[in-house]
Design a protein that fits this description.
two-stranded antiparallel ribbon; MetI-like fold; mainly alpha; globular; single chain
Length: 282
């Protein structure tokens, strides 16, 4: 009984530790600038929607009426959606055949190739990002969607290949051999037999890859200007030498979290099935 109670207490403490920052950001989005900076912090205060009106509608309360101000958060949101979706689609398109080849075929220095691909994630982004800035300027990839989609492959492609390689390896080779005996071509066997078997794993990998791309900060901050800047680095726009707009920044941060949360909830069963794929083998 004591052991069970301690386990429950540990789970509750971990949840509080994890969720409290999100709870605090939500509170900040409904506070006035005075309430945000008040010490000690206020947990009971008069709610205001000024931050939401400013960020989403471009309306700023002057004390007597709302004035229209420039807001770009929705444009940055659209940029992130295009970049994350394109990056994930390209990583899945390139990563699935590569993962299948590493799982099924033997070729010269296969493991060295797989490790080299994985090593792209080892190098700190700061080591390469400033050199990439110069290259992107020369190739006219700076501040373009295609440039961001390409650079995000450094993050996503190794992850997709290594995740899907383990899933493909769990499928018995005899299933594919039987399909080939029945007259399927390689592509027919891969698309009609193998891929449906790993569909939950593909969904899980795609969701995690999308979230990685959506949350990426450094490449989006250095390799983009105002035109295609993603929503995550755009949060720094609420910081100036004069002031920090904490309430509006908190509101924009909540908006930036919405796609990752909704996508995870919407296909949660696929994520759970994919992450547990092959965990129990009969």
């Amino acid at each position: 009984m004591l052991r069970k109670s301690l386990r429950i207490m540990a789970i509750v403490l971990i949840m509080i530790w994890t969720l409290f920052p999100i709870y605090w950001v939500i509170l900040m989005s409904f506070k006035t600038p005075i309430d945000v900076t008040t010490y000690p912090p206020k947990f009971i205060f008069k709610l205001t929607l000024d931050n939401w009106a400013n960020v989403l509608l471009g309306k700023e309360w002057t004390g007597t009426h709302y004035e229209t101000v420039k807001t770009d958060i929705l444009r940055y949101f659209k940029n992130s959606l295009i970049i994350a979706s394109g990056s994930t689609a390209l990583a899945i398109f390139l990563g699935l055949p590569a993962a299948y080849s590493l799982a099924r075929y033997k070729f010269f220095r296969k493991e060295d190739f797989a490790f080299t691909l994985l090593s792209f994630r080892f190098a700190p982004a700061l080591v390469v990002v400033f050199g990439l800035y110069s290259v992107y300027q020369r190739l006219r990839l700076y501040d373009t969607y295609i440039g961001m989609i390409i650079i995000h492959q450094i993050l996503l492609l190794p992850f997709v290949v290594w995740m899907m390689r383990s899933y493909f390896a769990m499928i018995p080779a005899e299933v594919e051999q039987a399909a080939r005996v029945d007259g399927y071509s390689w592509w027919g066997m891969f698309s009609k037999i193998t891929l449906p078997l790993v569909k939950p794993a593909v969904a899980a990998t795609s969701v995690v890859a999308f979230i990685y791309s959506w949350n990426e900060f450094l490449y989006g901050y250095v390799l983009t200007g105002d035109k295609v800047r993603p929503v995550t680095p755009s949060l720094l726009g609420f910081i100036s030498y004069e002031r920090v707009l904490w309430g509006q920044m908190a509101t924009a941060a909540i908006v930036a979290m919405i796609p990752s949360v909704l996508l995870s909830l919407f296909i949660q069963r696929y994520v759970v099935a994919g992450l547990s794929f092959g965990a129990v083998r009969g």
